[in-house]
Amino acid sequence: MKQVVCSSDDLVPGQKRAVQIGLRSVVLVRMNSGEYCALLNVCPHQGARLSDGELTGTTLPADVGEYVFGRENEVLRCPWHRWEFDVTSGNALFNDRRACVKRYEVTVEEGNVVIHY
Ligand code: FES
User: Fold this and answer.
1) Where do the structural domains in the chain lie, given as residue ranges?
2) 43 touches ligand 1 (CB under 6 Å)
3) 83 lines ligand 1 (CB under 6 A)
4) CATH code of domain 2-116
5) 100 has which bridge partners?
6) Residue to probe by mutation, ligand 1, list 50, 75, 77, 81, most atoms within 8 Å of CB
7) Of 31, 82, 22, whose CA–CA distance to 52 is shortest?
8) According to the model, what pLDDT value does residue 109 have?
9) In the predicted structure, residue 55 carries a pLDDT above the cut 90
């Protein structure tokens, strides 16, 4: 099944919004690339609303003593205890096997953002 949640230009890159899919709350994110991602709006740690968290980036692999920031607006940080999730996969950055958030497929159809569930 699928549901239209907004117009494709409602969010600018770097914005996020909670949307309702039936009884589920989903956080819709627009990345810098312009693509959309959607995750269940519930942190797997203790249930915080991820849509209340910060959309950010992370440090990238680099040489010793070098710090390179990247993937801006592709990492969602939980507002309660700051676990971080890759919005493209739903996997936690620190341990992707033990903590992940359900991810939903998102398409843009005729100017509308559509979440498949
Ligand atoms: S509730 Fe999200 S990190 Fe604790």
Assistant:
1) 2-116
2) yes
3) yes
4) 2.102.10.10
5) 91
6) 81
7) 82
8) 98
9) yes
